[in-house]
Structures are given as C-alpha cells and as structure tokens.
Amino acid sequence: MKKSLMALSSVLMLGSVASAQKVTFEEFTLENGLHVILHQDKSAPVVITSVMYHVGAKDENPERTGFAHFFEHLLFEGTQNIGRGEWFKIVSGNGGTNNANTSDDRTYYYEVFPSNGLELGLWMESERLLHPVINQIGVDTQNEVVKEEKRLRVDNSPYGNLFSAVKQNIFKKHPYRWAPIGSMEHLDAATLEEFQAFNKKFYVPNNAVLVVAGDIEYDQTIKWVNKYFGSIKRGADVKKQTFVEDPITETIRATFEDPNIQLPMVVAAYRTPSMKTRDAKVLDMISSVLSDGKSSMLYKKIVDQKKMALEIGSFNYSEEDYGTYFVYGLPMGENTSESLVKEIDEEIVKLQTQLISERDFQKLQNKFENQYVNSNSSVEGIAENLATYYMLYGDINLINTEIDIYRSITREEIRDIAKKYLNPNQRLLLDYVPAKDKAQN
C-alpha cells in the first residue's frame, strides 16, 4: 500500500510539473513572410527580442565556408541608422545585453532589455534586417575578429578540431562535413559582392522567425511589430538543397593529429537520423544510459572499476538533416585505444541485447523530466526554444509536447535503437592523437 501511495504521489507530482511548465504563445505571419511568436511572462520586468534566420553552415558554397558564422559578427557592425561600433553601446546604455550564435542549420540573434526597452529591441532587429551596412571596412574588421576566434577556440584549443575531424569523415556529400567557423582562406578570398549577395539571399523576412518574450502586452507588441517589420520587403524564396548520404556499411578508420594535446583520444562516431525523428530522441536517452553520471554503464565499468580511461563519454549531436552519435575515451596508463574500444563495444552489445532495469529506466525518466523543466526555466531559454521548434522542427508546440515523446519511449525501444544504429560496421573509428612534431601547421 505504501508503494502504491508513493507511485500515485509521483504521478501527481509529474503531472503538476508538466502543467506548471506549459508555455503559452501567440503566433502570426506578416505579409512579407516573417513569422512572429509572442510569449508573455510577467514574472520579471524583462523582455527578449530575438530573430532566428534559417541559414547556417550547410547553406554555404563549399568554396566559401564560414559565411553564416561570419555574418553572426558582421551584422553587429551597424546599419544606416546605427553607426559603426554603436550597436553594443546602445544596448548596454539601455541596461541590456545581446549576443548571437550560429550552427550548421541556423543563426540566432537576441537582445535582453528591461521591459521598457521592448520597442528599442524591435527597432534594432528591424534595422539589422532592413538597413545593414555591409562594406569593406566591416568585412575587413570582422575577418580579423573571426580569425582570432578560430585561433583561440579551434587552432590553439586542446581537442578543438574534434568535431571537424569527425564530421569530415562521417559526411561525404552533406555540407555538415565542414565546421561553422569555416575556412579562413575562403573568407580571405571572398569579395564584398559575395558577402552582399549572401545577405540578400538569406537575411530576408520570409527566411526568419521573430520571437518576443517576457513582460509584454500582446496588443502593443503586435502594433510595434507591424510598425517596424511590416514594411520590409519579402525576399526571393530560399530554396534548400537536399543532400543524401550513402549508408556506412564498413568501419571507417581515420587519424587526426592535434599539436595542442598530450593525451590521445579515441572516438567511435555513428551517423544518425534527423533530430526531428523519434529515433533521435531514443538516442538521447541511450547517451544518458551509457555515460551520464558515475553509475552509467561506460563510466562505472571503464573508469571506476577497471580504471582504463581518464574520461569516457557519449552524446547524440542531433541536427536538422542528420545527427552524429559520439562515443569517446581517453585511455589511461598502459591501456590502448583498441582495448578501450573493445570495452565500449561490450557495453553497447549489452544495451543491444538486454533491457535496462526498471530502476535505471525510472532514473532515466526523472533525468529527462528535470531537463525539460530546466530548458524552460528562463524566458531567454523559452524564446530560443520557441524559435527552434518553429524553424527546425516545424512544430512550435513541441515546447510543450516533446517531453511526452520522451515519456513514451520504452526499454524495448532503447534496446532496439541501439541495435539499429550503434554497430561496428556503421561507424567511424578516429584516433585523435598528439602531433608527432608538436608543431603548429
């Protein structure tokens, strides 16, 4: 009876969490194609104005990689009505903060202001869209900024080229094969006209979603959205290319030398389906089973019990078109990459042939409930989630319902999806090793 009461209490508690976390929103589309999502949250006097553009590294010319990330910087240079170098001064001078980020699939800009800065934030984002100044001075300035970022985060950072080393071997046709930071040689070779053409093609209202969230009044916000964005002309329709990879049918072996490391890393990487699929969500759970916490399968056996690795981990890197599932480890002492992979494979086979325990499954469910709550715990997080679910998933309400998909995943699915994707003949084995001469290229 006591267990039944505890179980009932747990069900009621989870139900109340789900209800409390429900995100309400309104949405509409302007005549120029700009989709608008509004979310009201009166808990703090803060507003977020954000725009996500459906352009990322995968939309670039293979001979001009790095453009989308470059524009993440370039579009802060100024507009016809915001002087060069004034953007950040205006934001900070009005008590706000701002930032941007780029992925393979999209670029996201946002400002956070006190609630009395809502109209200012909308005006600034409309200026970025309507009146960007793209000239040689700005291009040259940001070229140096991007080069320094690449030196800091990639070239001189231990394991900084890991994603690039994996993706260039996993993908042969898809633009996911290069990193968003791109090639400095490509950026150096690009003309001003090429940058202007890229802006004209992708930074248009019909390739964007505007999210306004926080301490807002719907009627007033709609008026300001129409005032500042309604007159912007629609751009030409953006046609997305489709790239289909051939299945991996035998182990790919590769080596990458990094002058910034002393300890080798071994990586097993598997190409997986789009983040929009149910399978991708099961793979998210599998990564938690394998390596999330000291009681996880890989950590408990390889790090804790056998002390074969300094670090071990796995994660599902999901993207709009494909995903990449990573399992990695740093061998310790006399252990080799080969011996580490053998142990990893043994644990994956267990996952493919045995059901995880009911106790471990409940722990897994609890972890994902907590992640769901945390992902929508701030208005900034809600704003980005709303934009992402609209643009990349095509379903805004997933912000409320995606957790139900995770809740419905079974132990049997975890076993079957591990068996479907995590096989030796479907993967890359990468030896990520110290450079022999320890010299930078």
TrEMBL record:
Residues 1-20 form the signal peptide. Residues 36-175 form the Peptidase M16 N-terminal domain. InterPro entries: Metalloenz_LuxS/M16, Pept_M16_N, Peptidase_M16, Peptidase_M16_C. Residues 190-367 form the Peptidase M16 C-terminal domain. Pfam families: Peptidase_M16, Peptidase_M16_C. The keyword Hydrolase applies. Keywords: Hydrolase, Metalloprotease, Protease, Signal, Zinc. Belongs to the peptidase M16 family. This is Zn-dependent peptidase.
